[in-house]
Amino acid sequence: MTEIICAGFGGQGILTAGMLMIHAGMEQGHNVTFYPSYGSEMRGGTANCNVKISEKLIASPLCKEADIVLGMTSPAVDKFEARLKPGGMLFVNASIVDADRSYRDDITVVKVPVTEISIEAGNPKGANIVMLGALASKSDLFDAAHLKEVIVKFFEDQGKGKHNATNIVCFDRGVEGK
Amino acid sequence: MAKVLMKGNDALAEAALAAGCRFYSGYPITPQTEILEYLSWRMDEVGGEFIQAESELAGINMVHGAAAAGARAFTTSSGPGFSLKQEGISYLAAADLPAVVVDVMRIGTGLGDISLGQGDYWQLTRGGGHGDYRTLVLAPASVQESVDLMIASFDLAEKYLHPVLIASDAAIGQMIEAVEIPEAVEHDIDQFEWSIKGCKAGTEPRKVQNIYYHHPDYEGFLTNKYAEMEANEQRYEAFEVEDAEIVLVAYGISSRICREVVDVGRAQGVKIGLIRPITLWPFPIKAFELAKSAKAFLTIEMSILGQMVDDVRLAIGDACPVDHYGSIFEIPETDGVLQAAIAFLNKVKGEV
Fold this sequence. Notes:
heterodimer, A: alpha/beta, 6 helices, 25% strand, B: Rossmann fold, Rossmann fold, 2 domains, 40% helix
């Protein structure tokens, strides 16, 4: 069982990143759940989703102790760093989060400037895709080539295939980590 | 059909369409609004009627009209909105009409709030509205089961000519899981003898009434209707119950946690099992016959009062103690449930 929390501002593609992860997990033959934060959420407000990917039945869809946190903003990193298991992985949007910030010493911190990379790639909405590239590269959860295929197909199915050229650039830059 | 990823609420809506339902009327309220949102475009695609009503009462009364005409019709709500539906559910039961009403439960008494809850158990299982009736109540514990029970609910409603309730909750409604939607069936609105579909010359006019004064044995008819539902429609799942000393009883989101509690507890040598009611009414008393070694029963519900405790006591008599472990803001956690179960069992054993 892998528990992932993806968090940031509304509009950063937080929920989309979660959906992409469960699509990939399902295609790998695993049980998956996705649970959104819901309620008074709005563009510019906070957004997060809980994702679980498991070979066994999944009990609660909520992540109590996360294996992985994708933190797209400073408040998201502040809020969810404490929810990581010892040994967990914290992916930080280094474009936004202060470079001098200190972290727990029992977790692995991966800093990637995902916002800057997405802008350089010509797809400022693709910071979430950069983050997924970093995740595929640094953890054992996904095969990078497979996750990239899932992303491309997901947006094609949604009629948003025209962004895929830059999505691929975003993803590959995320895999590189810079 | 291949598995797709769907939110519980959306899957429930799609399942209703797969069951041939072509009439929906409801009013938005979190955490069930996705059902309206989904049907607002999808119902049009399949040629049905979607109406966002001016109120919950209007919503259920339109469903009453559609059901009287022989349509497969449903409405949905949550919390205070579900309370407003109760008058209409009572009227559907009185008129012997098949219809489906979904309650995606949320926290709280009064307005409550939009987060998780399972506090509507009494309202769901005791009639809820005024008068002398009960309804079948089906409680899904996954997105797939939301689909399966939504489809079954229309068949059951027509089998007994009676409203059927779906007891979902905010967790099951909001979560996304992989799901398979069965092949769609068509519903013939004119297939019933009893429905209101015009009166041709020389035929008896049909009436959908509130009380059937002229029924040759109305009291017997009503008695038998409920007795048949109780005898034939109990649904449940039992895990590791046969030799269990402590038996958890849970439905919906809480039952998913309890399934894990049984696995963890068994690995530690605790003789623990789970009864998961799928029908909340009729309550699956047959499941309790399996619990031959039980020394105690513990319900796990997202409520403070422990509402299902009543039904467990009715099912087992005074055979052994029953208690409740609950939470309202958070889904009960595996460790907490297991510790509570062990503590309760030890207490009961000490008392014996």
